Amino acid sequence: MLWASLLLPTLALDAALRERPVPDRPFALVHGSAQQRTLVAVDEAARAAGLRPGQRLAEAEAICRNLLTAEYDTAHTRTALSLIAAWAYRWSSDVLLDPPRTVSLEVGKSLRLFGPWPDLEPRLRNELNELGFRHRIALAPNPRAARVLAGANDGTAVESVNDLPSALARIPITCAGLPQEAAALLNSMGLRTLGQVLRLPRPALQRRCGRALIESLAVLLGEQPDPLLRYRPPDRFDARIDFGCEVEHVHGLLFPLKRMLGDLAAFLSARDGGLQRFVIRCLHADAAPTDLSIGLLVPEREASALFEVAKLRLDQTRLPAPVLELELHADELPPFVPQGADLLDQRAANALPWPQLVERLRARLGADAVYGLRVDADPRPERACVRDDAADSATTHLPLRPTWLLPRPIPLRGPAPRVIAGPERLETGWWDGGDMRRDYYIVELATGQRAWAFCPPGERGPFMLHGWFA
Fold first, then answer.
1. 443: Cβ–Cβ under 8 A, 6 or more apart, which residues?
2. How many CB atoms lie under 10 A from the CB of residue 47?
3. Which residues, listed in sequence order, are joined to residue 140 by a DSSP beta bridge?
4. CA distances (Å), 447 to each of 443, 460, 461, in order?
5. Within a domain: residue 279?
6. Are residues 324 and 398 in the same domain?
7. Which end of the chain is more exposed for a tag (fewer CB within 10 A), N or C?
8. pLDDT for 233-282, tens place per residue?
């Protein structure tokens, strides 16, 4: 087996930064009581200004007066780690969670599908960069060794068990993930690297440092399994962003919403599933939550398509009060079946697939304004086609009827029209008292308009106008 370990050294900071536009001021995460607030993590601009983790907030604000801060949230960090695990699940079915900052995935079997490790590694890095997480990656025959190598030397790849001891030999004891008490004792004995420790006899090490050290070394060398939590993707998606301030305009919600939908798309891709309905919830301080329930005609999982529909709905929403938190919930996750396409597709380059076009129209005009039609068994024109909100208008086969059917027929005035097609005789309705006997024709008027008109059976006039063709 081959394991790739993804070490996320700035996970908490990245999880906070990716939910807001790039700050134009130094940024830091803070934690602690009101009297003893300290910096937990700082970005590059804050570090360049002389700030560092562990510094008191009052001291940091004295050094950097334009410091931008946000509350450090351990639950938020765990959610970000689960997101990385969900993303990694698309590359491997064996994903291990190693809190607080590491995810490992078995890629030995995946190499048969995605190609050798030198080809797979850049793809993993590119997608992690797109998600907004800085990272270190290493490859080893077991997850513990991969994590240690990633922390010591980013990009290390050890594919053979026989090469693992020599690769670990240069690792400092302080970076090897050994029990703290044992590592401190080994350091006091003058031992600085794992290679020096591995050359010592195990029984003597156990007597001096305890059994926990021996078990940790056995796991590191792959002699014992690593007792990590195996990840399984959940059956629903929930995300939340606490702005920490009041967002008064809808446009201020677009950036975090786009990031949330990108996370949702990565989650769906990992599950090999789609999305047919999701809810955007805006939480206010002095008003009831604003819920936007968005339904799709067909399952979708492209982040750009989901964001386009959500953006159109938000643009038409009037918020009753400023927004403090934004939530995204999705619990209807049907299987995703990609739509087939012709080999020689003649559509224009910028043409949208039919389902996406319908979704845009529904989002812009409202769900009640865009709907499908289905053929009813009653042949009377007024009842032949009925509304069907669940119908796919692109595949519904309708008889040749005008796009504009008049509420009631009216006499057709003017010169005699030219008959293009007909007659189509309709003789029906006898069972409910609404019987009718008509011969329908498609006619062209002197003005060039095409109309749908009828007259009594066997006659060619006078015509009664019943509809117009586009």
1. 412, 417, 418, 419, 420, 422, 450, 451, 452, 453, 463
2. 14
3. 3
4. 11, 20, 19
5. yes
6. no
7. C
8. 888 999 999 888 889 888 889 999 999 999 999 898 888 888 888 999 99
Position 433 confidence tier, pLDDT thresholds 50, 70, 90: confident
Model confidence, pTM = 0.71
Q: Give how many domains the chain has, as a whole number.
A: 2
- Beta-carbon contacts of 2 under 8 Å, excluding residues fewer than 6 positions away, are 106, 107, 108, 111, 117, 139, 140, 141, 159
pLDDT above 70 (res 393): no
CB 417 within 8 A of CB 445: yes
What is the mean pLDDT of the segment spanning 439-455? 89
| Structure-block tokens of residue 154 | 């980013």
Q: What are the DSSP calls for 239-264, one per residue?
A: EEEEEEEEE-STHHHHHHHHHHHHHH
Q: What is the pLDDT of residues 311-326, one digit of tens each?
A: 988 888 888 999 999 9
Give burial (CB, 10 Å; 0-12/13-18/19+) of 99: middle
Of the candidates 289, 307, 332, which is a domain's last residue?
332
Which range marks the domain in which residue 318 is found?
Answer: 237-332
